[in-house]
């Protein structure tokens, strides 16, 4: 059975985000095919996709390598998210379905419950699920794709501190859902902008492992189809 290139792409991307492959390290088709138990064809397709997303670069005489983002590129991601998350919330207020609302309200309920009980280990995954669902509720495939890629890249470049007051964070989530449920696009946008701004303050640039580095030079990274 042929393994889809999309599945291979997801596996490689997850491993890059998790730090399995160090920044600047080579990604050879042969070794990747062996690691994931596939042929080189889906690996080659996956590397092209990851290069378009900015996780991989192609270097002369070296081939595919893990990208080495600059500090400015990392900062840009947070700025872009601060623009797109509120847009997504506003569109969700106009396009959400009852199914979206049911999931969002359920997540807020769980998040508030876990906050009261001090079960912080669950809150990060619940928060990610909340923002993914909110993006889906926007009904905009292009925006959903951009936000998904942003989440992956931000998780790769940043460590996120747990909120000092998680109950307040989930109260903000709840207020966003209330605005979305009422169809109040401007209030949903304003609340999401405030929430995203506060969340951004908890992000700390990851310190690369030994042998890695976050580039500080402003030379362009050699990527194809670079966005975000």
From TrEMBL:
Protein name per its UniProtKB record: GntR family transcriptional regulator
Leader peptide range in chain numbering: none
PANTHER family: GLUCONATE OPERON TRANSCRIPTIONAL REPRESSOR, TRANSCRIPTIONAL REGULATOR, GNTR FAMILY
SUPFAM superfamilies registered for this protein in UniProt: GntR ligand-binding domain-like (SSF48008), Winged helix' DNA-binding domain (SSF46785)
Domain HTH gntR-type: 2-69
CDD domains: WHTH_GntR
Pfam family, one: FCD
Keywords: DNA-binding, Transcription, Transcription regulation
Superkingdom of origin organism: Bacteria
Cross-referenced SMART domains: FCD, HTH_GNTR
Organism: Streptomyces endophyticus
This protein's record includes keyword DNA-binding: yes
């Amino acid at each position: 059975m042929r393994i889809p290139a999309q599945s291979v792409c997801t596996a490689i991307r997850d491993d890059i985000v998790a730090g399995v492959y160090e920044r600047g390290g080579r990604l050879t088709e042969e070794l990747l095919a062996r690691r994931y138990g596939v042929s080189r064809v889906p690996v080659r397709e996956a590397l092209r996709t990851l290069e378009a997303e900015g996780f991989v670069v192609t270097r002369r005489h070296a081939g595919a390598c893990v990208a080495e983002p600059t500090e400015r590129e990392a900062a840009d991601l947070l700025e872009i998210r601060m623009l797109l998350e509120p847009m997504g919330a506003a569109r969700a207020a106009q396009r959400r379905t009852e199914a979206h609302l049911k999931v969002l309200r359920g997540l807020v309920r769980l998040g508030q419950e876990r906050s009261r009980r001090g079960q912080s280990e669950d809150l990060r995954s619940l928060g990610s699920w909340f923002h993914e669902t909110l993006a889906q509720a926007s009904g905009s495939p292009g925006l959903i794709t951009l936000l998904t890629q942003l989440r992956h890249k931000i998780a790769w470049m940043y460590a996120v501190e747990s909120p000092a007051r998680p109950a307040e964070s989930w109260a903000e989530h709840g207020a966003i859902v209330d605005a979305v449920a009422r169809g109040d696009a401007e209030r949903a946008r304003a609340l999401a902008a405030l929430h995203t701004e506060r969340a951004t303050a908890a992000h700390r640039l990851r310190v690369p492992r030994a042998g890695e580095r976050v580039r500080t030079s402003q030379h362009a990274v050699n990527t194809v189809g670079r966005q975000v």
